[in-house]
Every structure is written in C-alpha cells, then in structure tokens.
Amino acid sequence: MTTTRQRAGQRPARRTPSRRRTTEQVRSRRGRRPENARTRTGTGVSRRKALRRRWVALLGLLTAAALVYILFFTSLLGVRSVEVVGTQSISADQVREVAKVPDRRAMLRVDTDEIADRVATLPGVATVDVSRSWPSTIEIAVTERTPIGFYNTGEALYLVDTGGVVYKQVGEPPEGFPELKLSEVGPNDPATSAVTEVLDSLPGQLRERVTVVRADTPGSVEFTLEGGKVVRWGDAQQTDRKAKVLAALMTREGKVFDVSSPELPTVS
User: Fold this and answer.
1) What is residue 43's predicted lDDT score, i.e. its pLDDT?
2) Do 108 and 133 reside in the same domain of the chain?
3) Contacts with 168 (C-beta within 8 Å, 6 or more apart), sequence order
4) Is the per-residue pLDDT at 103 higher than 70?
5) Cα torsion through 183, 184, 189, 194, rounded to 10
6) How far apart are CA 198 and CA 26, in angstroms?
C-alpha cells in the first residue's frame, strides 16, 4: 500500500475541482455556429445575390439590344403597305409614285418628313401629313388645294387657289371658275389676297355668275357677271351687307352696280 507522506511545514495540496457541464450548456454550445462559419455562409449568400443581379442586368441588356436590332435593322416590322387618304383630283397612285416609300424598310427608319416634302411637290397639294400606322403601314394624308379661279399668263392657263397660289396648268378655262385679270397673282400680292377673299365670301349663287375679277389695289375689286353687268365691290369688308344691297340694286336697270360704299350704292 502506497502512502504519501507530508513533509513538515508543507500545506496539503489542493485539488482543482472538476467542472461539470450541465445539459443546458451542452445543448447551447451544440446549437451555436462558430463565428467563422457564419461569416462564410453570409459571404456565400451575398455572392450568389450579386451574381444573380449581374445575370439579370446582362439579360436586360441583351433583350434591349435584340429589340433595337429587330425594330431598326430587320424587315420584321418593315413597311408593307402605303395608304393614301384625302385625294380627289389627284390619284392615290400618283401620290405613292412621288412618295417613294421604301418597301420592307424598318418602320422606325422611314423618314416621314422626306416623304411629305416629296408629296408636297405635286401640283394641287396644299398640305401633307405622313404617319406610321403600326405594325407595317405608312399613311399619307393629303389636303388638296381648292381652286377659286384661273389666271391667264398669255402663254398658259393656271388654276389659283383660295390662298392666291398659282399651282396647276390647265388646257382650257375651267368651267364654273372666273378669270383673275390681275397684273400679278401670288399669295403675297395684296390685290390677289383681296380678290380671293372677296370671291371666297360671296354667296354661292352670286359667285357662280362671276366670270371675270379685276383689281388694281386691295380696295378696288370689281367683277363681271354673266350677261356683262359689272359690280364695283371695293375692298373685302362688309361682305354680307354689300351682298344684300347688290341683290336689291340688281332689280333695277343698269350696267354698273357700285356697292363699294353700301351706304350710298349707285347704278349707272
């Protein structure tokens, strides 16, 4: 039997009490993840999210590029028909021929302004509006000029519209329109503007009887009616009143009917 002797003057050695782990402590430690493991897990999730965002962004760019290519550089949404509206004396085929709309060209690459400029060169066209009608039609809306009379240059006859524009040559005097006997005809000529304004404002039955219109100045408009009677109209003011006064004067015998001053009309 082995015994341990204790030397004199020495204190007995103390035993370090053993630490006992409770069940709760063991479970608690088992349920925890080490700090480095949690860090690695969080970093992995962040990387996956970042990678997913990059793929989404790349897919968006590729989709946008594909749409741009389809819309601008393929005939998938290209021109397949040209629709013309508003024409009366001008044929739709004439408009298409002058418009020169490129067939099968991508709709977004069609220059509508250039098309409108080409169509506007047609005699008789006042305004042009060119638009895209998806998915594959170019629409050309034309407003034709409205003739108010004709002008004889001495060499040829031309139609004149309500704005005083000389726009179309004709072979013979058009039926139902008066001749404009002016020293100059044009949209910027004051006498022309007065004549066209007077003609455009006359009552229909009276205007149909007018054969010739003259004016040296904007205030000296006069016209000849069928049968040779002359009406001195003056300026383009008080149209309704002058028309009523003229209707009363025409019941009298005479050759010249002056309503330039409707307050003091005369017959001679």
Assistant:
1) 72
2) yes
3) 123, 124, 145, 158, 159
4) yes
5) 60
6) 110
